[in-house]
Amino acid sequence: MQHLIIFVLILGLIPCVNAQQNYLSGTLTQINLNFSLPKNLKLNSKLESRQIFREKETGKPRITGFNYERTDLHVILTKKLSADNTIGGGYLVRLEDGDFTHRLIQQFNHVRKLELASLAHRLVLDETFSKDEPVQIRLRYRLSVEKALNGRSVDPREFYLKLNNEYLGIIGTGKPDLEIRASAALGYNVSDDNTIELGLEYRVNEFYTAAKAQQLWVTIAWYLGV
């Protein structure tokens, strides 16, 4: 029961988000397939969709109702350099309002197994290409902590807690911007190659405006190893 406390605390963010002038709230759902390849290579394929249930912009009335916003397909190839470090590169294609957006991705990961938790650092550089829009470049840093809720390691048929904090510097579309993300997810390890996560993610950006843009998402993720 104690592992649900984090969700009770984060649910308190919902009234704060709704009180702002610019906000989105809805669900983020994704399916991840991980393929192990020879020579320390791994291929990750992720299909993600975003559904909006409530939104508001400055000077406009609040909109409540289902709005299927977009679908993303990610493909990332990574190579393990050592027990703790991996590098990778990949491609994303997004379908939104009948138009396609393309993104190139380069990343570096460092994961350390601590005595009671796993600590992961991820650094990503990506370039986004959209129709009739300048190229958008983002530099992202994410810190993640994963903690087993039973014992010191996550075993099959056990729960775990995952916390993420991410910072994104953005240039290329209007004024330079910073986006900050924080999330918490409760995961269940069905087996070594099959896990499910349910969580909440909060985002804030447009710090150059008086009314910052805020988002709150319910996240549902399924990870499968092939």
Commentary on this structure:
6% of the residues lie in helices and 69% in strands. The protein has helices spanning 5-11, 13-18; strands at residues 22-37, 41-56, 63-80, 85-96, 99-113, 118-129, 136-148, 158-171, 177-191, 194-205, 213-225. It has an eleven-stranded mixed beta barrel. The protein has two helices and eleven strands, in the order ααβββββββββββ. It is globular.
What's the N-to-C terminus distance?
32 Å
Number of strands: 11
Helix content: under 10%
Per CATH, the architecture is Beta Barrel
Topology as a string of helices (H) and strands (E)? HHEEEEEEEEEEE
What is the radius of gyration computed over CA atoms, rounded to a whole number of angstroms?
Answer: 18 Å
User: What's the number of domains?
Assistant: 1
Indicate the proportion of strand residues: over 45%
Uncertain spans: 1-11
Mean pLDDT level? 89
Largest sheet: 11 strands, mixed, barrel
User: Largest sheet, order of strands side by side?
Assistant: 1-2-3-4-5-6-7-8-9-10-11
Q: What is the CATH fold-level name?
A: Porin
Query: What's the helix count?
Result: 2
Please, what is the CATH homologous superfamily?
monomeric porin ompg
> What global shape is seen?
globular
**Class per helix and strand makeup:** mainly beta
So what's the CATH class? Answer: Mainly Beta
